[in-house]
Amino acid sequence: MSTRITRPAVLGAVVGSLAAGGLAVAAPASAVSPDVVINEVYGGGGNSGATLRNDFIELANRSTAPVDVTGWSVQYASAVGTSWQVTPLTGTIPAGGTYLVQQAAGTGGTTDLPTPDATGSIAMGAGAGKVALSTGSAALTCGTACAGTATVRDLVGYGSTAVGGEGAPVTPNPSSTTSAARTAGPDTDVNSTDFTVGAPTPTAGGTVTPPVDPEPPVGPACDAAVATIGSVQGTGAATAVTTPVTVRGTVVGDVQDGGLDGFYVQDAGDGDAATSDGVFVYAPGGAAVDLGDVVTVTGTPAEFNGQTQLGGTRYVECGIAPQPAATALPLPSTDAQREALEGMLVAPPAGLTVTELFNLDRFGETQLAQGGRLLTPTEAAETGAPAEAVAAANAARSILLDDARTARLDTGGQAPPYLTVDDPVRVGDTAVLQPTVLGYGFGTWRLQPADGSADGTTFTPTNPRPAAPPAVGGDLRVADFNVLNYFVTFGGNSRGAPDAAELAQQQAKIVTALTALDADVITLHEIENSSVTTPATPYRAVETLLAALSAADGNTWDYVRASEDTDVITNAIVYRTDEVTPVGGPQVPADLSVFANARTPIAQTFDADGEVFTIVANHLKSKGSSCGAGSDVPDTAGGNCNGDRVAQARALADFAGRLATSTGDPDVLLTGDFNAYRYEDPIDVLTAAGFTDLGPVLAEGQYSYVFGGGSGSLDHVLASRSIVPKITDLAVWDINAVESPAYEYGGYEPLYAPYAYRSSDHNPTVFGIDTDTPATAAVSSAAATRGDVVTVTGTAFDNGEQVTATFPGEPNKNRATLGTAVAGVDGVVRIQYTVPQGFRKGTYPVLLTGATGEQASTSIVLDR
């Protein structure tokens, strides 16, 4: 599994009452505080000259409903610090109520705080620091860039040296005798505006004065002179206008209800194709407008999260008008082309393809692209400039479809759009879009539904769910499956299900998938390394899974007993005892140092009806974390830890060579998660060592993983030359990577079903082996003449087997031996024969006979 970088939740509304016809000032920072806010911070408790003995943080609920803060926390970091200390919270703050968190005591002071609602032990700075209110209990990892983090509900930087608050910090610096306390006005998310320094006033379980709004301003007149929206937007990436303006336009996007807190207006245009005719109007308290309303709006332009908006606005309704015709959104397109359409009703090209769904259950986001699925650059092209060109083309082709909601859906119990249990949206499906407005936020262009609801968007299932695994032929089936951190223990080092109920869900899906694969040998990855987590029962996880699998399919399964402690997850090899027999014991590389940050390769030799082969289960270092300058490269060159994976691939190639020697059989298969795409260096190392990457050969256009909007294969089956002719086919079973995480165990509960779909985040691979491949023979020339040198080639003989070529019978009754040769590791033998001068015109059958009795026939034809 690869680590993902996810966006934080979009900013919510500013707290405050909406005056008639007026809209509150736009929030210029990135911390969400729609109800509970930090009301006061004091770090001078117990210091010299202080009256109070303790530091404290006071919260206030400025909404009209109680808020349960159980599971939340207040956190503190020094003025320029990046490490956060945590105090957990419990209980409920009533509407209009306060909540006092007592912190560390000093040696001075004479007065205790009122009885606190929560108690911590953080020693806060008196003159400068940062305080965050988080909706989670884990320590923040955002350092000095926490504004906009999904769990941060409010954030205060106090003191002139504080870095990382909301806007400018609170000044002058508080002291032993003063605190930073919130003013009575609306929350602007600028600390220097929202807080003042004065005597500390800790209040526990009390009430707060509602924020005071100014008298409602008079709205602009419908006949007032207005500027064109194009003149506000300008031709650049940001507006150049910084003073209040008045514009008039038609409401083309009403996105107030999902947390975007505003609407889009569009005017008739200024005739300049380089300027947008639409703009976002920030209306955090709600505005009584509908699609088609003509409004005159006065406000101050600013860039918020990369999008131009009018804030501090007043408006007046001036009638109703038909919606303007949607303007074509070209794809592929540049940022400049999209900037010229920002805030406008747009018509994207028809037939956009779904390319990623990772954030659908989190933020309601679906990645789309023109021209079919996007491929990960290094899956499609060689590293360096070719992959960079693919990356640029991908960016130009893609666009994000949003659902106009900003909160985390998965943590808030909200249903993701578009999905039902048996009617999914999958990567490769085709979007049928409702009217959309082009917006921008969190670093990307977004299509927002014009009516603020995702209900009107549908999808054509152009990549439907496969009912069963593909047929791959052969008389032995082998599969490779990443089981998505299958752990049977909870807490501690567990990376899997948090409890027995979710483990049961996870296991049911995995067992359904494994049963359907109907494989005889399976390599598994991301399974709990019980030798680390439960040393007394070192194979507990694999034994638990196999017990469930045997109960489901009625077969007897066993596993290879090899364990190393390089990680809390490991590889495993499991097999049906009635289909294959282990030959010797498991093997691992003699030197494991190169795999210290990966998982130990595990090898086992099997005999299947006389066909002997060795399989190696692998899981190389991931791309998710840095390995340092000596190993990390750009994504288009292989990504983080590429150097480490190259070293691991070299060690693996050496290990495979030693296996061929020690087992006496050259048939070696390398399977698993190599964390490298098709054209990356680790795969090049292995193919240069003589292995064939079977996916591109037998399953072109099939991919095991989706990441960053691109499809590709991190999972591979690499075969030694000798076993390649025995592989009948290979396929990727497309059940996981193309589906939303909402279908996983622990996903959106109403969508859970114990079927195979989204049983992991990687697709499984299955391939067939013919354990009794017939030998074949062919000649180098379709027609020959006397004196010609003809090469007779045979295949599928055993490595080292002596093969003899004879004429078993021919027109002039001469029986002769053409020659003998020894088959190579690939099972191929070549025998050269010079046609005698005395041979007559005709067809001469040739028989190849191996020392084990295997035969194949062909013919030499003399045409004159």
Give a summary of the structure in a few sentences.
This protein is mainly β and 864 residues long.
Structure description:
It comes from Goekera deserti. This is ExeM/NucH family extracellular endonuclease. One of its GO terms (biological process) is carbohydrate metabolic process. One of its GO terms (molecular function) is endonuclease activity. With about 850 residues, the chain is mainly beta. It has 5 domains: about 35-200, Immunoglobulin-like (Sandwich); about 230-340, OB fold (Dihydrolipoamide Acetyltransferase, E2P), CATH 2.40.50.140; about 345-460, no CATH class; about 475-770, 4-Layer Sandwich (Deoxyribonuclease I, Chain A); about 775-860, Immunoglobulin-like (Sandwich). It has 12 helices and 47 strands. The strands form 11 sheets. A 7-stranded mixed beta sheet has the order 18-19-24-25-22-21-20. The chain has a 6-stranded mixed beta sheet with strand order 8-7-2-1-11-12. A 6-stranded mixed beta sheet has the order 29-30-28-27-40-39. Helix 3 (about 335-340) links the parallel strand 18 (about 325-330) and strand 19. The longest helix has 22 residues, at about 640-665. The chain is elongated, with a radius of gyration of 34 Å. The two termini are about 65 Å apart.
